[in-house]
Design brief:
This protein has no helices and eight strands. The chain is an all-beta fold and 86 residues long. The protein has one domain. Strands 3, 4, 6, 7 and 8 form a five-stranded antiparallel β-sheet that branches. The chain has a three-stranded antiparallel β-sheet with strand order 2-1-5, with no helix packed on it. A hairpin with a 2-residue loop joins strand 1 and strand 2.
């Protein structure tokens, strides 16, 4: 993820990871494929992503299909472009 805005934004974080949801296209609707489960031993909350800064993460997808990543940022839902797993 890259912050292309003109200011710092708060992103959800669990421990060292960005908290996102992966959705899979099932027919004509998007369904939750995986999300972040945050154990109580980890810090959970918003972390600042400065203007122009980047954060990367890894999520395992084990089935072929069309997917997208969804993220809640400051009360708005952001979605990635659709990508295929074969």
């Amino acid at each position: 993820m890259r912050n292309l805005s003109d200011r710092s934004i708060d992103i959800p974080q669990c421990g060292p990871s960005i908290s996102v949801e992966v959705e899979r296209l099932d027919g004509r609707r998007w369904v939750n494929y995986s999300g972040t489960f945050c154990l109580a031993i980890h810090f959970w909350g918003p972390v600042a992503l400065e203007q122009g800064a980047e954060r990367a993460g890894i999520s395992g997808i084990h089935e072929p299909g069309a997917y997208r990543i969804r993220l809640e940022v400051e009360g708005q839902t952001l979605t990635s472009s659709v990508f295929a797993v074969r």
